[in-house]
Structures are given as C-alpha cells and as structure tokens.
Amino acid sequence: MLTPTSTFALRLAGQGAARASIASSIARTTACPYSTASMKQHQASARPIGLASTAGPIARTSAAFAASPSSSIVARVVRQPRSQRCNATATASAAAQQKSAPAPGDKLDWETFFQLRKSRRRWQLGFSVISGLGSFVGGAGILATGIADPLVTQIPLDPFITMGLMTMGFGALGWLIGPSVGSLVFYTLNKRWKTQMTVKEKEFFARIKKNRVDPSVSSVGNPVPDFYGEKISSVKGYRQWLKDQRAFNKKRVSFV
C-alpha cells in the first residue's frame, strides 16, 4: 500500500517526464527548420504574399494592354476575315493607282502634246550635253592613267591621235546615252501624261506616215520637206507641214 509520500513522488516523476518530452520536441523543431511542420507553416504564411506579389503586375499589365487603343486595333484586325483584309488591300492599291492617273477631265489635247514633246526634246538635249562632257572628261582621265597604252601601241597611228580619237569616242558614247536618261527624267516628272503621250505619239506618227511625200521623186530644186516631222512643235506647225507636202507634190507634177 502506497503512502502519501510515495504517491506525491510518483506524480512529480510523471510531470517531469512530460516536461522532458515537450522540451525534446521543441528542440527538434528548432534544430530542423526544414521539418514538415515548419515547411507547412512557412508555405501557409508565404503563399498569399507570393500570389499577391506575382498576380499584381500581371493583372496590371493585362488591364493596361486591354485598355490601350493599339490592342483593340490588333484585335479587330485578327478577328477580321481574310477576304475582307484582301479586299481592303485591293481597294488601297486601286486608290493609289487612281491618284497617280490623270483625272477624267485631264485629257491630253494636241497643243499640250506638242508642248510636252518640245519639253522632252529639251531634256534629252540637256542630258546629252551633260553626259557627253562628263564622258569626255572621264575618258580623258582614264586614258591619262596609261591603262590603254598596250592598245595604243598596237594601232599604226600617232599616239596623240589615237588617244584623241578614243577620248572623242567616250564623249560620243555619253552623247548617245543622254537622250535615254533625259526621257527617263522627263517621264518621271510627267508620269500622269505618259500613257496618253504614248497613244498620241503613235497617232501622230501614223498621220506623218500617211501624209508625207514620196522621197524617191525629190530633186535638188525640190527637196523633201521635213520627212519625219521633227520640226513640228504645234498644231499650227503641223498645218504648215501639210501645206509644204502639198506644195512639194504640186511642184513635182508641174515639173513633170
């Protein structure tokens, strides 16, 4: 039979064992910060903060992109059917062509055609002079370097004459290239009249071919008056050209 003293001692021993077990569990938790309990507590406490910090910028960026006008335009273009996009492209190209083409009221008459033809001839002449002089000077500079000496020694002429002829050949080549460059510049500046000028020019040369005289019956006293119509620069000049053709035929018949 236990006495009160022994019972009190047993109670103290049981309380001490319980306190020792609690202290050991606390020590294990403190010594191992990556335990299951601590990780669960850390995740539970850190998850809301991480989600809030991650979702905040994404949400703000999405809202800003949705509110921007460019995003709405892109969305409309993406949602637009392919046929409508093709039709829009074709309409834009047709509008650009109509803008470059002359208006329906801007029809090229004969007087304007002759003025444009005269202007084109001036452009051709100007570029012929420029390209001829440039080629002449450039050719002289190239020949002065001695690059053509082997060729000059093989020609049975005086070297100065040979070099002069070659330099003049460079100038003639530039003179022949000039009209092509002048026509290109002229049609670039007068793009709206290019098609109509081509049509008018064909019609003009057809009239010249039809009304000009036969050059085989010409003579010293009765030369052919402007066989190709190069001197015609106006409607009045064309009428005068027709009169000259009739005068030639009349003079030929009267002499026969």
From TrEMBL:
Biological role: Component of the PAM complex, a complex required for the translocation of transit peptide-containing proteins from the inner membrane into the mitochondrial matrix in an ATP-dependent manner.
InterPro entries the UniProt entry points to: Pam17 (IPR013875)
Originating species: Colletotrichum fioriniae PJ7
Major location (coarse): mitochondrion
Keyword set includes Aminoacyl-tRNA synthetase: no
Transmembrane segments: 125-148, 160-187
Family listed: Belongs to the PAM17 family.
Pfam families in the cross-refs: Pam17 (PF08566)
UniProt topology in membrane: Multi-pass membrane protein
Keyword Cell inner membrane: no
GO biological process: protein import into mitochondrial matrix
GO cellular component, one term: PAM complex, Tim23 associated import motor
Protein's name according to its UniProt entry: Presequence translocated-associated motor subunit PAM17
Keywords for this protein: Membrane, Mitochondrion, Mitochondrion inner membrane, Protein transport, Transit peptide, Translocation, Transmembrane, Transmembrane helix, Transport
Domain of life: Eukaryota
Assembly, per entry: Component of the PAM complex.
Subcellular location: Mitochondrion inner membrane
Signal peptide: none
